[in-house]
Amino acid sequence: MGDCVSPVDDFLNELTERGIRLELRGDQLVYYPRRKLTADLRQRLVQLKPEILNRLRGVHEAREVPSQTTPITEPPRIEHPPVSVVISDPQPKFLESLLINVLSQRPAPAEILITGKTNRSIRKIVNRFRSRGVHIANSSLDVQHNSVCLISPDTQLGPDWLPQAVQKLNTPEVGAVYSDHELIQTEERTDYPGHVTANDLARSGIQAPTILVRREALVAVHHQGEPLNVLLRQLSRSGWELRKHSGIVYVQSDRKESYFQQQSLDQESITLFIPLSGRKHLWPKLQHFLQQQTWPHHQTRLILCDTSRDKSFSNRIRSWFSTCDYPDVRNIRLPSKQAGLADLPRDQQLIAVNEQMCRIYNLLRAELKTDYVWILEDDIIPPVDVLSRLLHSFEENVASVSAPYRSRFDGRYLVWSRERSGNAGVHQLCRPLPDRPQVEEIRGSGFGCLVMRAEVLKQRPFCLPEGETCYDVRFFRELEPHWKRLVDWTTACQHLHNVPQPKSNITTRNLIYHITPFATNDIWLRNVQQLLKRIDLFNGRRVIAVATGEGLITPDQVQAAFGNHQIEIITRPNSAQLRENATFLPLLESVADPDPHTATFYAHAKGVGKDVCCLGPPRGSRYWRNAMYHELLDDWSRINELLIDSAIVGTHRRQHNENHQIYPDGQSTSPWHFAGTFFWFRNTDVFSSEKWRDVWQPTGWGAEAWPGRMFDFEQSACVAYDGLEDLYNPAVYFPQIEDE
Length: 740
Hints:
The protein contains 23 helices and 33 strands.
């Protein structure tokens, strides 16, 4: 006779679908949440209560014997192999309901093992179900059957979940079967692909709260207490296929977890790869770091790539292997073509060094067996907890997270926002202000200390085609654009060989500033208040241009707003067409001295025309304006460092080579600009010729276009919000600085 689905099974399955839990309390059945039990379900519960109680107590319901004279048509009998169910770390509030749910599957499981943490309440529940094959066990491997269902304690199986999963597992190459799941509270449902690879799992994972797995596959990779998503990844790495079936699992709680938690990255085994150049004086500090770094050493596959030609150094490394506490270590010899190559003048050996690095990282590609690799150069000393901190910044679409360090050649951070044209290097970044996000998206970084997905590193071999000089710049340039690259500035490293932080020769700082002081609002005054908070930064000339005319307050009132601070005021008639550009040339003329030790800051009272003509929401305009004051005036050392190599520094830089006439007036033109028109420039680069005057345009947006007409894009630097297009969106600004 085939297994017919009884009214009790139908009822229990319907309760599961609706997210209703049953609990046995003596002779009573308790259900919750109460609000989900309809009148019809309540009536059926009363009718079926005796059979449900008998089933929970282990008494099989009597089957009606059909009359011999009544023909019965039954579905063909499907023989299913017995299934063992394992519930790990059960929760008392869910366990009874879960056991009822699992035992309602047809065929019912042959046994149910309870593993992990138990207490008195759990043991009492298990004893009530002992006659149904429920018992406490030490390990998932104590199961008696080959089909093993591993169930999260806060889930419920949908109807026929087990038979559907067993059928899918019949394919010999399939090691485990998973399904979609639905959150009971919100009815949100996943939509996982039909099959997944190891790379898929390393990126996004499958938060499968219940899976069916072959025991022989489980035995080979099992670690007690390991999350199911980690188990699936290990099965896939071992060569087993993972398949989805059409059943559904219902999850009681909405798990709000970070990517680090979802992927159980704290349990990840990581390859730590260190190229060794043979510099003996560096080894003691590196050795000390390896002993002190806090990522579990038993989860670290350590590979040291010895590129030296020094036998005594190599012997020293091998000797350390015998005493270190890393259980998985390898020493690979890859001698460089020239002894001491790493310490030779880089400008003379640039190609040779980068070709050697290509050989090193191609070797690493062949050695990778983990999903993540941590690359550390032998003269970089990071914080001891750097690996955990970098891993916490990963998301599904993140390829790498770097720890910043200063270059050994120019003292600048080896982190960049874009490449310079003509293979002329990169636009290096400076550290963000302390109240800005410390993890930010970048274009690329050096390989001194970074964590990368192995999948990304394996995508293509490292090489140095003709015309290329830097393997790392080329690697990040060729990386597909959907992959994000991040830097965590809180993990800044010590570079044992870097030159001192670069020093600028700028000693004098001028201010030139335009105000259109409308009498109808106080926006101009709010701007002045932002400026006054930083006014002492300017130790050179402070020239304020004030527009005059109908509807504007007087220059004397503007002067009064600056209090006792020393400023110079010049006036020009207000021009609705030229706006701040009406005073731009006179302001430049007031500081026209090519002194190499002088820099000048230009800005204007932004957003003053909000009652007259505002291109965006006032709140967005306010955050944009105050962000420019903050970024360009609150840490002079950052600006000073950028002015060493760049002629002009601003925020909100936008490049638009394809459309020079991007400005609202339809007349101003330039291939790039600083949106908002706040910027610093070196006087020597502006006033050493008459170009500054020649490129000026008598147009409404001529001042904003001027930097892009005066300087090539490669001569500029952007301290924040580089490439931002949604300028008026308040959400893009952090911190969101209000007016005082």
